[in-house]
Amino acid sequence: MKKILIGIFAGLILLTHAHAADTGTPGDKPVATPRVSIFSTSTDWEALTGLRYSEYRGEFISSSGIVGRGLVLYYLDGFPCYGLGDGVRIWVGPNNKHDGELRIACLYAPDEIKFTWRNATRDADQAQSTGILICPVESSGRELTIDLAKCDRGPDWDEI
């Protein structure tokens, strides 16, 4: 049995040496193989903070200054929250009309949230957004209020 194991071990060493010697011509530098690391950008914030996610719902107060004929908002995930399913796209129209509801999961109520935005009518096809809208948030329990008149326009995509 010992002889068999020694024979297998010796064979592996010879194969490894033969493969290493056959990787190029003498004097060639070994070619570096690029390494690609793919990892999740998500972090388990519950585990890191000891806090638990809760669902929060957002209500919008329209502002004719930015809403115009309509405003399509897409919630941008950001600590301490992430968007929930179809609750990340909201259309806000004049006269406090809306289509959809902001639904996000948060470790605690956020002080501000960000959206991509564009002006469009209610049934407009999905198109490229204009830029970023940064909005302060008022919270009462798990209900959030976003007054669009208090939001700041961040840079438009063509300004970045």
Summarize the structure.
The protein has 160 residues and is α+β, with helices and mostly antiparallel strands.
Q: What is the count of DSSP helices, taking H or I runs of 4+ residues?
A: 3
> Major beta sheet, specifics?
6 strands, antiparallel
The mean pLDDT is 81
- Gyration radius, rounded: 28 Å
DSSP strand content: 25-35%
The helix content, as a percent range, equals 10-25%
**Based on CA inertia axes, which overall geometry fits?**
globular
Kindly state the number of beta strands. Answer: 11
Low-confidence stretches: 14-22
Write the element-wise H/E pattern from the N-terminal end onward.
Answer: HHEHEEEEEEEEEE
How many angstroms separate the termini?
Answer: 70 Å
Q: Which structural category do the helix and sheet elements fall into?
A: alpha+beta
For the largest sheet, list the strands in their spatial order: 5-4-2-7-8-11
